[in-house]
Amino acid sequence: xxxxxxxxxxxxxxxxxxxxxxxxxxxxxxxxxxxxxxxxxxxxxxxxxxxxxxxxxxxxxxxxxxxxxxxxxxxxxxxxxxxxxxxxxxxxxxxxxxxxxxxxxxxxxxxxxxxxxxxxxxxxxxxxxxxxxxxxxxxxxxxxxxxxxxxxxxxxxxxxxxxxxxxxxxxxxxxxxxxxxxxxxxxxxxxxxxxxxxxxxxxxxxxxxxxxxxxxxxxxxxxxxxxxxxxxxxxxxxxxxxxxxxxxxxxxxxxxxxxxxxxxxxxxxxxxxxxxxxxxxxxxxxxxxxxxxxxxxxxxxxxxxxxxxxxxxxxxxxxxxxxxxxxxxxxxxxxxxxxxxxxxxxxxxxxxxxxxxxxxxxxxxxxxxxxxxxxxxxxxxxxxxxxxxxxxxxxxxxxxxxxxxxxxxxxxxxxxxxxxxxxxxxxxxxxxxxxxxxxxxxxxxx
Length: 446
Ligand code: PEP
Ligand code: CO
Description:
Blueprint: H1 2-7, H2 24-36, H3 43-57, E1 62-67, H4 78-99, E2 103-107, E3 121-124, E4 127-130, H5 144-147, H6 152-173, H7 182-185, H8 193-214, E5 227-232, H9 236-241, E6 243-245, E7 252-254, E8 259-262, H10 272-278, E9 284-288, H11 294-304, E10 313-317, H12 324-338, E11 343-346, E12 354-355, E13 361-362, H13 365-382, E14 386-392, H14 427-445
Parallel strand pairs: 1-2, 1-14, 2-5, 5-8, 8-9, 9-10, 10-11, 11-14
Antiparallel strand pairs: 3-4, 6-7, 12-13
The protein binds phosphoenolpyruvate and cobalt (II) ion.
Cobalt (II) ion (CO) binds near residues 69, 350, 392 and 421.
């Protein structure tokens, strides 16, 4: 119990980007109910992920994180979830086979429902309403009913997370992830260079699988994969209610996901978010934007990984293609000087968001490529390991990010622009990134 009292200390700190709940008694009832529900993940799984992320900090594996900017209840369907898993598995195969490196697969899924927004309210035609803060808080429709925060949504978010995680577990252990099916995962037209490249790779994997079969090599790892889930730990009432004491060790674990990260807007060293996550034992990520100072990263290490445990702390840099080569080196230098280990992951999405004249929030694939190349170049210069990549993607054929071999143009953005928040890579753009990263990793290994 003492542990849970310690956990509650975030309430004495400044908690940014929390909704103004209209009914605090109801919020208490809903979070009390959440506390009675089973954990979504187990402490032992979070520990396993921490060990896998530790390998990435040493260059012995590579972290692939991907999923929607904001999951929605309406799109938490079997089809959408399957397509996202398929995309992540295909990317992982490209990386594993293309760069001969084990890939730690983490879905930005099963809990990525809360969003920080630049403004607390939105004005349309002179009407001002609360901004959409993600399905865990309010609805997207621009009506007072939908936009009023409703804490029953916390329970719905838990239920959608549980169902999504269940499907992820079923798909990744129930035959869908069998490596002898890599061909079946391909779904595009072979004229498309990304799909054609994937098809060639799948043919090579098939040959390797036939060889293994003939040599009587049979291993569970060829048929099932471990897939973990992570989300931004933004909504502290929800995160607190799902934090539990591990009966094996007596330690606190946030059991809403294997890994949690702190966003760019809530990583202030005195913020409630840092306080809460300093008290749980999961692997933790922190987003670092272009204004991050060396003193910030050192303070974050002190707060979140004072003992210097490998795999505990991941810095997810999202600098922007234009500045990563200038800003990242001093941060890496500071961490090297400190000596406590961190895993460096690149989020090449959030520093490269633009708005078109027509008002679409988008990103250019070439800027995303450029930030990834900058990330690899800086780590190569500094003698540190590029540990992974964090992407906003969907398995569907959307038109939200500009560019790609089946080029999405400014004029065609509106055709299938479906995201409610940030623009996502579509399936084919995601594969293109996987090939780019595989090549960059191969060069790193040389
Ligand atoms: C996000 O990951 O969707 C996000 C809001 O990122 P950041 O905190 O890096 O801005
Ligand atoms: Co986003």
